[in-house]
């Protein structure tokens, strides 16, 4: 009688565990189980879908009772390439494989999808792209850098036809049966592009983002898994599409590569989609094209150092000119008596002129709500959130005071709840107030507001974009949501209210971001035949960001030197450690312990604890540490930081220490 030898599987559970757990493989499953399989297991009394990381004839040093694998889940199993990508993510972003697999497993198809469920699109129109000479030259250069196996960075002004080049390159790959991943930073952009790409790629196009239903996400995942057979596929997706079950990947396009929305800040893995895409491309030997009108300092650095090939496209298609830029000194305007509420008389005159010509106006304000706070006129009381240390914003339409950090909201009451005597008045202006005031000044104009509140419904968002594009809306008031990628032919004037609030952020990237936002906004103006104009209302007219904006990006990129001098990214790697917990004393104690330990870290510059302006969010107190490490050769230091973070969590209960690598 021969004794059957036990087989064990180590599995990665979708939890923050730091080790893989061993399970016994029942005999009937042993022929089919392999690394990468998805299995159902029980852990701490709950069932989980886990991923098999290895098969073994022992269960290591574990002495307790080993449970059995319940079943193998049909469908896709992970390849070595996927493991390599996940391991890189866990290592680089200082998290566990379990956290990475949790992010990935939402994307893996559970069961085979029948072909009939795959949505058929309009038949392929295809056709050749007739690129302009400039565009063709850029495309040739991009292809040259692909031959050298270098990522290309396409720095093309807004409206220069970057998208046309992306489509032309994608089409060549797809026609040869290849797979293209076309990444965008935000859902709104993907919705807009979906239509444009769909006309060319027909049923070869699939999309992927978190707002899709689980069923359509599975459909996309299945198409990606099947694409290895060489039918050709274009995937339009957000950062999470990096976790799709690729078996073949020929080209990755990273559109608006500078956009900070590529970074996931919550939950872990806190990865940068652009940077992770480049690693994935290395694993699949795919070509990479990054594109932006305002490349990030990181990518400029990489092209200066020869890692990327920089390709410029300086002309707008059809030769449309860069809009005229006017920085309007709001202090002077006030002194001259030309300030009418929120707007300078010069701005109002410009708007009036555009409306007379049947042209459209965009007013940008980077704050939603009616007013960011309200205050009692009698006792000075400012209503605050009960869970966050921040003032409540007033939303006039909803008759509510709302917290923008959590879901807390209360009905708005004109009478102060503190003294019962005074009335609450608005302090500051948000998009809702801007839209209301401008509609009062131009009663015949159709004014609408485009922000997170009004675009909550996908259908409303679509309608507004359509109505603005077709000229039904005269004046659109919006937040940064409206700044990216949109193509409105009739829009000729962009006005920025309270522009200085972009500069006030305590962040070494504030200038870079503000410049990018201004450039993106100006890219919305004058895309038709006529030259557009952009007016910035500011009381800091001589700020370097505004002069760079007026004079072109050269001056801004001089600031790279400053970053080098003072040792900021991209010249160093930055890690932010956040200590958080419900009890303020414990957070302080943990911060002190952490500070002492961090002081022992060699070859790094650490600072903290810092208490942020909003030092309590969703009931948790917060403190930050900043750690600067050399760009390379820092893995030991990172491991050490992870270890002390765990030690502090163990020592002081009720506190978590969260590392964020390359925080944005
Ligand atoms: P970008 O992506 O650089 O902002 P787009 O690709 O959106 O620029 O091009 C701007 C506008 O010019 C679009 O309306 C686009 O259709 C048009 N356009 C650009 N290049 C071409 C081309 N080669 N042929 C026809 N239209 C073009
Ligand atoms: Zn809150």
How would you characterize this protein structure?
The protein is of the alpha/beta class. The chain is 31% helix and 22% strand. The chain has a seven-stranded parallel β-sheet with strand order 8-9-7-10-11-6-12, sandwiched between helices. The protein has a six-stranded parallel β-sheet with strand order 13-25-24-16-23-22, sandwiched between helices. It has a five-stranded antiparallel β-sheet with strand order 2-1-4-3-5. Strand 18 (393-395) and strand 19 form a beta hairpin. Helix 3 crosses helix 4. The longest helix is centred in the C-terminal third of the chain and has 17 residues, at 635-651. Adenosine-5'-diphosphate binds next to helix 4.
Question: Main traits of this protein?
Answer:
664 residues, alpha/beta, GIY-YIG endonuclease, Rossmann fold, 4 domains, 6-stranded parallel sheet, 22% strand, globular, binds adenosine-5'-diphosphate, binds zinc ion
SSE topology:
Elements: E1 8-12, E2 21-24, E3 38-43, E4 46-56, E5 71-73, H1 80-92, H2 97-105, H3 133-147, E6 152-156, H4 162-175, E7 179-183, H5 187-201, E8 205-208, H6 214-226, E9 233-237, E10 251-254, H7 273-284, E11 287-292, H8 297-304, E12 309-313, E13 324-329, H9 330-335, E14 339-340, E15 343-344, H10 345-356, E16 360-364, E17 373-376, E18 393-395, E19 400-402, E20 409-411, E21 424-427, H11 431-441, E22 447-450, H12 458-469, E23 475-478, E24 491-496, H13 510-522, E25 533-538, H14 544-551, H15 554-557, H16 559-566, E26 573-581, H17 584-598, E27 605-610, E28 616-617, E29 620-629, H18 635-651, E30 655-661
Parallel strand pairs: 6-11, 6-12, 7-9, 7-10, 8-9, 10-11, 13-25, 16-23, 16-24, 22-23, 24-25
Antiparallel strand pairs: 1-2, 1-4, 3-4, 3-5, 14-15, 17-21, 18-19, 19-20, 26-29, 26-30, 27-29, 28-29
Helix pairs in contact: 1-2, 1-7, 3-4, 13-14, 17-18
